[in-house]
Write a structure and sequence with these properties.
α3 packs across α4 (56-71). The chain has helices at residues 2-19, 22-32, 40-54, 56-71, 74-83, 89-109, 114-118, 124-141, 147-168, 175-191, 201-215, 220-233, 242-251, 255-261, 271-288. By secondary structure, it is mainly alpha-helical. Helices cover 69% and strands 0% of the residues. The protein has 15 helices and no strands.
Length: 315
């Protein structure tokens, strides 16, 4: 009996190893047919395979913590505090979800390429993405926001997922995946009327780091906005876990971000190392024991709800 179980387990490991990198292979095949990334569908499909199929957890968490980085820029946090949408507890959840849904619609459904939209008027997927970006532009149009602030937020959406996956992922990102990720979000920036967008991924990282060196400093508005979002993240978590949750948030922030948010370093001994080891253990299990996901982790609905006639989000 034990011999058969061992053989079955070894057979599973051989099969798991043969398919574990299948999504990366599919990405390379797709990009090989469009190496200049001129087709929006090339970017969309590869983004779904990489970020939302192979790394959905890290992608989501990197953007959640990326929000903290934007709150640590006084010029941005001051505006957010003024609008009250990400400060008042009764508004912050709705505003956070609205922003996430709009950006997810654009990335998950496409619609950021004006040229292709013009030739795809009947494609409901593309039209959904187009309407999402139009709505996002309308929301921002009422405020006078410097182009550099837009570019910084864009750089966070580009750089943070790459950093998190490089640090905690079950495999490193291939250069092709990084370039597709950069190109996708750069096109979103173009659709949002940003200008002077860095031309390469290296230039985007350099812009991100230089901007933070210059502008990431402590101001009371940073703390006010970040506190409201932190309380939102703890929704549904028992109150006795909140102190540990705050320590974990601090442990996952770098020293410069902690300083700009007035976060105390974690007092639990070795918490940073423990969390890092836990994430590394999860990555090891994924790489060596688990089969790859077969479908992307989408938040936006694929079909209209028959009862309401609306697209209803999944979570």
């Amino acid at each position: 009996m034990y011999v058969y179980l061992l053989l079955a387990f070894l057979g599973y490991l051989v099969y798991q190893r043969s398919v574990r990198f299948s999504n990366l292979s599919r990405v390379k095949t797709i990009v090989a047919h469009d190496p200049t990334l001129t087709k929006m569908e090339t970017c969309r499909s590869t983004q779904l395979l990489t970020m939302l199929t192979d790394f959905p957890f890290l992608y989501t968490k990197s953007l959640e913590f990326g929000l903290y980085r934007t709150y640590a820029i006084p010029r941005i946090s001051t505006l957010l505090q003024h609008t009250r949408n990400l400060v008042d507890d009764e508004k912050v959840g709705r505003r956070y979800d609205d922003t996430d849904y709009i950006l997810r619609e654009a990335v998950e459904r496409g619609g950021w390429s004006a040229d292709q939209i013009a030739n795809a008027s009947g494609d409901q997927e593309l039209l959904r993405g187009k309407r999402a970006l139009e709505r996002l532009n309308a929301l921002h149009a009422r405020w006078s926001i410097p182009n550099d602030d837009f570019l910084y937020v864009l750089s966070v959406f580009i750089c943070e997922p790459i950093r998190w996956i490089q640090r905690y992922g079950w495999r490193p990102l291939d250069q092709v995946e990084k370039e597709v990720h950069f190109h996708t979000w750069s096109q979103v920036g173009v659709a949002m009327n940003m200008h002077s967008i860095p031309c390469t991924l290296d230039e985007m990282f350099a812009f991100n780091e230089a901007f933070e060196d210059k502008y990431m400093t402590l101001k009371p508005s940073n703390v006010v906005v970040s506190e409201a979002t932190t309380r939102l993240f703890f929704t549904g978590i028992p109150s006795f876990m909140h102190p540990f949750g705050r320590q974990a948030v601090s442990a996952l922030c770098d020293p410069r971000l902690r300083s700009a948010m007035s976060l105390s370093p974690p007092t639990i001994p070795y918490l940073e190392a423990i969390l890092g080891k836990c994430l590394s253990l999860g990555a090891w299990v994924q790489r060596h024991l688990l089969l790859p996901r077969s479908r992307p982790s989408l938040r936006t609905a694929e079909k209209v709800d028959s009862h309401t006639g609306k697209y209803v989000g999944k979570w």
